[in-house]
Each structure stands twice: as structure tokens, then as C-alpha cells.
Amino acid sequence: MRQGLNPEQAFWSRLSGPQQAWLAGQLKAQQPRPGDGVVWSCEGLDLGWVSAERAQDMVALLPGCTLAQRRLRWQPLADPALQRSQTLQAFLVQQAAQGRLTGWRGEFFAWWPDTPAYPPALDVPPFLCVERSGFRHLGMMSHAVHIHGFLPEGYLWCGRRSDHKATDPGLLDNLAAGGLTAGESPLTTAVRELAEEASLHLTEPTRLRGAGVIRTQRLEPQGWHDEQLLVYTLHLSEQETPLNADGEVQEFLCLSPDEVVSRMQSGQFTPDACASLAQSLSGLMTSS
């Protein structure tokens, strides 16, 4: 380790001024919504954003959905959260059967209203709980954990996503990352993803250090991506080498700070990996 520096500080100190400025720019990870879509809401809550074409599908196939003055309002026939979720899930099943929704995961994500309380309090029941791939399809905000593995001298372990992944195949990513499955805490998700994706079994979960939250928004082929990234850092020893166990990572690379940022700038990393790394180093940006 560089004298007196922790791994994140060592990483930051190895970057040039322009590289530091570029990485700081990744904190602005929210693109403006395109002008040809509509916001959809339920019971006074804005749930997401969809294209005009998808809005027409919702009006035709989702019971209680109406479109007026460029705004989509959904009033489910049954109000309780369980029935609400079941109705929306049935719509997503139908969309998948028609080939309009791809990448079905068979995994449930939860949706909470946008509040400053992140990570979400699990003792607060979610407003909706539906298929994971439906979140981009309907432009709803999801949650994910992202873990950066720093070595003492500032080098970073990065995984290359499998070519068979439904999203961002073949791109470089963090040490481990994964969506927040309904009913699972962020820390539990982080520990599980480290074991599954990197074969790193933490006997002391307190080694994971919370590095804050960053929200990313952009248009993707599947729909509007809107996600809260819950960022963690993990200090690794030279003897801890990641090895994939679940087939979702095709290789791990140990990269210098210069290599990481250079590859990010050339588009080799996922956008969320860039944003979450910037978040993990944000405290150093304000003090430098």
C-alpha cells in the first residue's frame, strides 16, 4: 500500500487530472427522458416511464389503465398490494408471451416510492412486487448492489460479464453486482453475489463498507433503465483471487487505475460500473 493511503486513496492518487475529472463526471448518471413517452402512475404515485407504443399496450391490456393528456393512469380494480402486483404480473406474462418483453428472469423485484431513505427499509411493504425484467419494460425504479474489490496498491478486480447475459453481455463490470431480490437485504445480496460470482465467501460481512447510493437513468433497448445502485467497497489481500462460480462472469482482470479509467472511457465497462465506481470515490473528489 502506498505510504499512509488506503486502497481507494491509492487508486485515486494514481489517476491523472483529466482522468479524475472524467470519473467525477460519471456522478451525473441520469439522462433526460425522451420526449415521446409518458409517465404512468397509480394512486397518485409516479411508477415509471414508458414509450408511447408501450403505453398503448397498457391501455389495451392492463385493466384499469387509461391515457389522457399525455399521462397514463392505472387504477387497479383491486387495491390491496398483493392483488395490485398480481394484476401487473399477469400483464407482464402476457407481454412476454407476445414477444414484447424479453429476458424473463423468473425473479421478483420490489418497488418502493422514491424517498430519501436508501437502502429501502425492508420493514416497509413495497407498493409492487413483479418480475425483474418488467422493471425496464415499464420504466420502474429498481435497486441493485455493486461491490468494488480494491487491492492495497489501488489495483481493482473487475469481472467480464458472460456473453450470454441478457444485459450488457461481454462488458467489463465490478467485482460483483446483482439486483436486490424482493425480501432480501442489500448486505445479504452483496454477500451472496460475492460468493456466486467471485467465489469469495466472507466470514466477516463487516468487511464490506457502504459507499453510498447513486441513481442511474438511461434509455436501453428493453425500455427505460432507472436504478438505485447501493455501492460497497471491499479491501482484498493479494492472496484473495476471484473465481466465478455461477457462469455469469467469463473472466476476472486485475487492472491498474489507469487501465480501469481508460477502458471505461472507451466504452468497455457497463455504464453502472462507471457510475458506481465514481460514487465509491466521491468523498475523495470533494477533498482533492
Distinctive features:
single chain, 288 residues, alpha+beta, Nucleoside Triphosphate Pyrophosphohydrolase, Transcription Regulator spoIIAA, 2 domains, 7-stranded mixed beta sheet, 4-stranded mixed beta sheet, 9 helices, 28% strand, elongated
Please explain how this structure is put together:
The chain is α+β, with helices and mostly antiparallel strands and 288 residues long. The chain has two domains: 169 residues, Nucleoside Triphosphate Pyrophosphohydrolase (Alpha-Beta Complex), CATH 3.90.79.10; 103 residues, Transcription Regulator spoIIAA, CATH 3.30.750. It is built from nine helices and 13 strands. Strands 7, 8, 9, 10, 11, 12 and 13 form a seven-stranded mixed sheet that branches. A four-stranded mixed sheet has the order 2-1-4-3, with helices on one face. A two-stranded antiparallel ribbon has the order 5-6. Strand 1 and strand 2 form a beta hairpin. The longest helix has 17 residues. It is elongated. The model has no long low-confidence stretch (mean pLDDT 93).
